[in-house]
Structure formats: structure tokens, C-alpha cells
């Protein structure tokens, strides 16, 4: 009986371990920044992927601070090695897959860097239960207190609220923290 339980435990650990191996960090080169939170990657194992930075939502290029967000992300990653884990799938209106992405040099998390510059918003639905939310909230608070980027206006508008207002539609995103 005990032998059977031990065998079942070993099999379960093997299966769980295999699942974790698939989610291990991947490395590659950022070959193109599409917008302020979306990057085309050439993974070390070949091919190309379009990935979105998990935890951050940057304005589109036609929105306030959209071009600044894209240019800052280009400065940070274009032509450089990046690492990521993931994916978390986005809704149909967003390209690629949401992943936690960072620069291996100094392990700089890209969502934190973009939020600290005031060029992205913290997105809670991609961070729940992952221990990232508190860090991103603190970084966002500091950027807001310093009146950086998006928060330089007295009443900043989140990218999804701006987009919905421009289309005269009700936003499908949660309200941004104020």
C-alpha cells in the first residue's frame, strides 16, 4: 500500500515538474518594438513571436504619451537580449500574448520601468496572485506622486478609458486606480 502511494507521488511530481519546465524563462532578441507594450521577439530557438509585457498597458500611438511610450521601450529593448515567462492570453483587441518580460542585465522588469516613467498603467488582471501587483502598485504610486508622463495631467485618463471615450463606447477594462 505504501509503495503504491509512493509511486503515485513520484508520478504526480514528474507531471507537475514537466508543466513547470514548459513555463521556464525563455531568451531571445527584441527585433522590433510595435508600440509601448508590444515587442516582436526572435527567440533563441528560432522563429518570431509578438509578445505584450504583462502587468502594463501603454497608450496606443494615437493617444497621449503613446509615441513616448513606444520610443522609451525602443530605447530599452530594441536589438537587445530579453527574457520572458508566460503566456497569459489577451483579449482579441490586443496582439500577441502577455508575458512577464525583463532585461537579463540587472534583471530589470519592463512593466516596472515603463510604469516608473509614467508611460504605462498597471493592469491588475494580469498580475493577480503572482506577487507582482504590490510592486507595480508602489512603482505607479511613485510615478503619480512625481507627476511623470501620463500622470502629469491633474486628472489622467487610462488608455482604455481614452479609447472608449474616443469611440463613444463603454470601457471594457476595469477602472484604473486613482
Task: Lay out the secondary structure.
Layout: H1 2-22, E1 26-35, E2 38-43, E3 49-53, E4 56-57, H2 66-77, E5 81-89, E6 97-103, E7 108-109, H3 110-116, E8 121-122, H4 133-145, H5 159-167
Parallel strand pairs: 3-6
Antiparallel strand pairs: 1-2, 1-5, 2-3, 4-8, 5-6, 6-7
What does this structure look like?
By secondary structure, the protein is an alpha+beta fold. The strands form 2 sheets. A 5-stranded mixed β-barrel has the order 1-2-3-6-5. It has a two-stranded antiparallel ribbon with strand order 4-8. Helix 3 (110-116) packs parallel to helix 4 (133-145). It has helices at residues 2-22, 66-77, 110-116, 133-145, 159-167, and strands spanning 26-35, 38-43, 49-53, 56-57, 81-89, 97-103, 108-109, 121-122. The protein is built from 5 helices and 8 strands; from the N terminus they run αββββαβββαβαα. The termini are far apart. Residues 6-22 have low confidence and may be disordered.
Question: Could you give the count of β-strands?
Answer: 8
Percentage of residues in DSSP E strands? 15-25%
Q: Which spans have pLDDT < 50 for at least 5 consecutive residues? A: 6-22
The Rg value, from CA coordinates, equals: 19 Å
Share in helix? 25-40%
Task: Identify the strand order in the major beta sheet.
Answer: 1-2-3-6-5
Q: Please give the count of helices.
A: 5
- The dominant shape is globular
Query: Structural class, judged by helices and strands?
Result: alpha+beta
One letter per element, helices H and strands E, the order comes to HEEEEHEEEHEHH
Q: Biggest sheet, in brief?
A: 5 strands, mixed, barrel
Q: What is the end-to-end distance?
A: 58 Å
Mean pLDDT: 79
